[in-house]
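Query structure, 358 tokens:
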């Protein structure tokens, strides 16, 4: 019998109160007196720093605390972390972080060991995060359709907020676009965007028949893997339709514990690429305060992460647990933990993020 892990007895840290909202997206961050504009944030006047991060920290909200949380999370998983690794993200996007959702996430198993992701939401006023990443040298420009996709979506669809997946080791990996809850783009319209993989169009009939024609809540564009995740709101879709989608995509039926998990999922996302009509993977996500619900074998790294990941809101830690399934029948397990919740509520749909394996 496999041992299940559970954070029973985990220490619950309580910090100063933060306004909590359940959706992705943050409010604008304003300037404070005595700061000046530099790069993409309000930076301190040059001075001799007490530590190497001091020059990189915006005055308004102390990104030194954010960095400390990144470092603490990396230490839980024995992931190497230094200011030089995190500074590029803080410099490019730091002016938005004080008001954004910040999430730490990891995947279980030896194949995924050695990385932890630091993810955050961005306001639509800040513009396309891929363009910002290019401007700051976080990623190289490409003529592949993956590089044009986010701009094409922005030109055709309402955007409630953006997001970034940034690996402590892997750097800038992925951009997200979240659509307003009352203005999801029709699936057929989204599939018709020129740079969207044609594979999505080949599955339109199946997705429409099973109830996802009007449930595209978000997308995730992975520039390293050159893949697209299409996030589909699943809470109101009958459980049998989720199982039917697996069959239609040619995936084997998982075991009973995974089946029960996917039936409760609030979001799912298939992963597409530009080179094949096949669905690479499909992931199901559940919001929880008990990551022991994840139908996974015991994993010491996941257990340590669940017990120790920092957070700055009242109450117990909040997680999104996820199961990713492959056509081969292989499954792997992911856990994301909120560190900070946006100061201002937005009308964006929350979609559980993917990880570096996507």
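Result returned for the query:
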């Amino acid at each position: 019998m496999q041992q299940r892990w559970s954070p029973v007895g985990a220490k619950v840290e309580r910090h100063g109160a933060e306004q909590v909202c359940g959706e992705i997206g943050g409010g604008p961050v304003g300037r404070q007196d005595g700061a000046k504009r530099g790069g993409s944030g309000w930076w301190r006047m040059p001075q001799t720093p007490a530590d190497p991060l001091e020059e990189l920290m915006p005055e308004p909200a102390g990104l030194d605390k954010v960095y400390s949380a990144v470092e603490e999370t990396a230490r839980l998983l024995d992931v190497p972390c230094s200011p030089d690794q995190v500074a590029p993200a803080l410099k490019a996007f730091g002016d938005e972080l004080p008001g954004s959702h910040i999430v730490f996430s990891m995947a279980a198993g030896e194949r995924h060991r050695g990385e932890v992701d630091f993810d955050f939401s961005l306001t639509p006023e800040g513009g396309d995060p891929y363009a910002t990443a290019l401007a700051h040298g976080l990623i190289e420009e490409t003529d592949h359709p993956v590089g044009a996709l986010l701009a094409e979506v922005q030109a055709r669809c309402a955007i409630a907020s953006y997001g970034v997946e940034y690996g402590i080791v892997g750097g800038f990996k992925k951009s997200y676009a979240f659509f307003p809850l009352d203005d999801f783009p029709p699936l057929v319209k989204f599939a018709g965007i020129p740079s969207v993989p044609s594979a999505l169009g080949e599955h339109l009939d199946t997705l429409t028949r099973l109830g996802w024609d009007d449930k595209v809540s978000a997308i995730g564009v992975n520039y390293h893997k050159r893949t697209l995740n299409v996030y589909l709101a699943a809470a109101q879709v009958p459980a049998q339709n989720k199982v039917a989608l697996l069959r239609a995509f040619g995936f084997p039926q998982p075991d009973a514990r995974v089946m029960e998990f996917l039936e409760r999922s609030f979001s799912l996302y298939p992963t597409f690429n530009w080179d094949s009509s096949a669905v690479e993977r499909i992931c199901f996500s559940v919001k929880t305060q008990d990551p022991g619900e994840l139908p996974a074998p015991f994993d010491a790294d996941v257990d340590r992460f669940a017990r120790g990941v920092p957070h700055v809101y009242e109450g117990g830690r909040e997680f999104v647990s996820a199961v990713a399934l492959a056509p081969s029948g292989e499954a792997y397990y992911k856990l994301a933990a909120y560190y900070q919740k946006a100061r201002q509520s937005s009308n964006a749909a929350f979609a559980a993020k993917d990880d570096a394996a996507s």
